[in-house]
């Protein structure tokens, strides 16, 4: 049963985030997944005035939320490749002091990442339980979307990286087998020790590259993504906002650096207030 304090915290955070970041004249708005996003859509519906506005969902559940609110969903892959979204809102499972997030508790991380990277502003909304100083403080695992055929090799790779007991996520009715994502892939949940942020590495609290048993958020994300069979990792980090896709040229070799760090995270607190963490 939903906890009334948690639900009103989610609603308060959603109302504030929408008030601060939703422009009623916006054209394209990304809508994430989960239970908190329902309050975001509710708040948008109250002030949306543009009948031509398009809402881009991050999966089946997200599309249903948009449709139920009487708004118009538009498929991500039906938009021209240069389309940028005015803003994208989403929930989060845990957020650290540098605004890195764990996402994928609802198994939608891949499409959530696609949408977040297209947004001029990516804004997360969460309740007080998600506000931590470091990732993997309370939320126990990193969700990873994996090709079914590659599950055993990815599990082995994750153990090599230091994950103690990575597990294939099953449906609630365990006898029905592994949970399938919107891509028909599987989710592996991988526990690691609490992750370092960049400031920790600079302060000498660990190398953060796995060699001394410590991982910094971005480094771990890259190491997991490099395992063959991994479609996406539920760590949202790196660049944010309009910098989310930067083409860099090093010695004539071009690489695209992407990122999905939110520009702001709104936390609904137990006392009814809303705390905001913004990108420095
Ligand atoms: O990443 C997600 C789904 O994959 C969700 O945004 C995340 O799990 C937060 O959900 P909720 O708002 O229900 O706490």
TrEMBL record:
Q: Which GO terms describe its molecular function?
A: isomerase activity
Q: What is its EC number?
A: 5.3.1.6
Q: Which reaction is recorded as catalysed by this protein?
A: aldehydo-D-ribose 5-phosphate = D-ribulose 5-phosphate
Task: State the top-level EC class.
Answer: isomerase
Instruction: List the pathway annotation.
Output: Carbohydrate degradation; pentose phosphate pathway; D-ribose 5-phosphate from D-ribulose 5-phosphate (non-oxidative stage): step 1/1
What InterPro entries does the annotation carry?
NagB/RpiA_transferase-like, Ribose5P_isomerase_type_A
Q: Which UniProt keywords apply?
A: Isomerase
Q: What does the similarity note say?
A: Belongs to the ribose 5-phosphate isomerase family.
**Name by which UniProt lists this protein:** Ribose-5-phosphate isomerase
